[in-house]
Design a protein that fits this description.
The protein is an all-alpha fold. 77% of the residues lie in helices and 2% in strands. The chain has 22 helices and two strands. The chain has helices at 2-11, 14-35, 39-67, 89-112, 123-146, 150-168, 174-205, 210-216, 222-240, 249-252, 258-283, 288-311, 316-337, 340-371, 382-385, 387-401, 407-421, 425-450, 463-466, 476-494, 496-512, 514-521, and strands spanning 70-73, 84-87. α2 (14-35) runs antiparallel to α5 (123-146), α7 (174-205) packs antiparallel against α9 and α16 packs antiparallel against α18. The longest helix has 32 residues, at 174-205.
């Protein structure tokens, strides 16, 4: 089977294979925008585009795993002067995972009706802009993974964030818009810092191409290199919601419609984590003695503050939002060790977290649609009244908490073993403690919302909750697309051995840097 896929992958021109995940959604978004309110055609176009992108990502992963990184020079301009698109094991793996998540969440959104059958104020606007905005978001995520230079990484973030500004305010009331403003303002500030960082890097080296910077930064004084490395950590730390830069996330994500929140939870912060991993390992390999301890401190603080924030919440959406923050710390912990095992564990945990966090927010959307609220003091007994819904929550919750044999257990064990091998016992102890507290946070949600006596009387709902009280039925497409994401999460530990080996090879490529640099710049 692998041989057949490899032959198919090699039959696709490299330029098409690498550029399709970016150009495909952009072109489809333009067509979808021209189609206007033709929702049926928009649905077919958007689903078809994401299917093609996901298949292309699979073939691309098979090819780069066998043959090494693929680099494409846009417009025929040689690197480092032109726009370079690069696919290696790390970027191709994340392209595949993000493609699967984007496709399944789109089906979830179609089931809910946000894109084609919404009712109430703003229905026409939602129908008109959802598909184009969603496709632009997909293009921005893909562009961030395959871009080969720092400036176009900034462009990718802006493309992604522009689409997210539209999606996060769809069907939003006044209170939701105010909360979303925090997200927008913080994103704009981070973009300003990013532009400054790009300018400083170019001033110090004369280039922004990643492969070229790998060698050029080695000739820059160490003090300047460390300052640039830490500045990029701050820039991407805001986007990844690292401590102390995470404050925007718990207030912003819960106000978006359920499908939008699910895809944001799974992908946006992980794009920031990817950018930290790519830049710190490829551009600043000689400064890990300084940046490593800083990253470990930030990882530990992110783990602790995020999980304590989750425990203090009374709303499922906010509990899950804080667990996003907390578990970003596990990924940065693996990077901060700057060992093969640590980076491999971080990559594995990124894959796990994209799927599991998306699943949990999708289930939360089902809960809110069924009950009219996600507040823990107003719902009870869902596992009795809807066993399927209880199962859909329990499986990813067990994985997030780190129970064996789920993917969260595999990822946490890999990171803890890497930390122990490196002698970083403090961060290991913090990781173990946060894992136990995650169990407690998930148990609180389960005990309050899913266990207990069904139909517990609820207090009077406020005006915003009351809007949804009448909704009791859950569309079948929402349920089955959520079940599909759950199945993807369950498949991760089934293929855990080969997947971890792939993550190890990706980490080895990152640390060696030679395959990437050679693919871009040539011999």
């Amino acid at each position: 089977m692998t041989g057949v896929l490899l032959e198919l992958a090699r039959a696709v021109p490299p330029g098409v294979a690498v550029a399709l995940p970016v150009l495909g959604p952009v072109l489809a978004a333009a067509v979808a925008l021209l189609l206007g309110g033709a929702s049926r055609t928009q649905r077919v176009l958007t689903v078809g585009t994401l299917v093609v992108v996901t298949v292309d990502a699979l073939l691309l992963l098979v090819r780069v795993d066998a043959d090494g990184p693929l680099a494409v020079q846009a417009g025929g301009w040689p690197a480092p002067f032109g726009i370079t698109l690069v696919a290696d094991r790390l970027s191709a793996l994340l392209l595949l995972v993000s493609g699967v998540v984007l496709l399944l969440v789109l089906l979830y959104a179609l089931g809910q009706g946000i894109a084609d059958a919404a009712t109430g104020p703003g229905t026409r606007r939602v129908r008109y802009v959802f598909h184009p905005a969603y496709l632009v978001l997909a293009a921005g995520v893909s562009f961030a993974f395959v871009t080969g230079d720092l400036f176009n990484l900034f462009v990718a973030f802006e493309v992604m964030l522009t689409a997210s500004y539209v999606l996060i305010t769809l069907q939003a009331g006044p209170r939701a818009v105010r909360s979303a403003m925090t997200y927008i303002v913080v994103s704009l500030l981070a973009s300003g810092l990013f532009v400054a960082a790009v300018g400083l890097v170019y001033a110090a080296t004369g280039t922004v191409n990643f492969a070229d910077l790998h060698g050029a930064l080695a000739e820059v004084p160490q003090g300047v290199r460390v300052a640039l490395a830490l500045l990029l950590v701050v820039v991407f730390g805001i986007k990844a919601a690292l401590f102390p830069l995470y404050f925007w996330l718990p207030d912003s994500y819960p106000v978006a419609p359920a499908p939008v929140t699910a895809v944001f939870a799974g992908l946006l912060t992980k794009v920031g984590v990817y950018a930290i991993i790519r830049t710190q390992v490829l551009l600043f390999p000689d400064d890990t003695a300084v940046t490593g301890p800083v990253l470990l401190v930030m990882a530990g603080a992110t783990l602790v503050f995020g999980i304590f924030g989750a425990i203090a919440q009374n709303e499922i959406k906010r509990v899950l939002s804080f667990t996003i923050v907390s578990h970003i710390g596990f990924m940065i912990m693996g990077l901060g060790l700057f060992t093969l095992a640590g980076i491999a564990g971080a990559i594995f945990y990124v894959v796990h977290h994209i799927v599991i966090q998306t699943t949990l927010f999708a289930v939360e959307g089902l809960v809110e649609r069924r009950t009219g609220t996600s507040r823990l003091n107003r719902i009870s007994g869902l596992a009795h009244t809807s066993p399927l819904l209880g199962g859909l929550f329990a499986l990813p919750a067990l994985s997030l908490a780190g129970f064996p044999p789920f993917s969260g257990f595999v990822g946490k064990v890999a990171l803890i073993e890497a930390g122990a091998a490196a002698g970083s016992w403090v961060i290991v102890a913090v990781a173990v403690g946060v894992s136990l507290l995650t169990v407690y946070a998930m148990a609180v949600v389960w005990g309050s919302a899913f266990w207990g006596r069904p139909n517990r009387p609820r207090r009077d709902l406020d005006a915003e909750d009351a809007i949804q009280v009448g909704v009791r039925t859950v569309p079948a497409l929402m349920t089955w697309s959520t079940a599909a994401v759950v199945a993807v999460g369950l498949a991760i530990p089934v293929v855990g051995g080969p997947l971890y080996e792939l993550c190890s090879r990706a980490a080895q490529d990152l640390l060696a840097a030679t395959p990437y640099v050679t693919a871009v710049l040539g011999g």
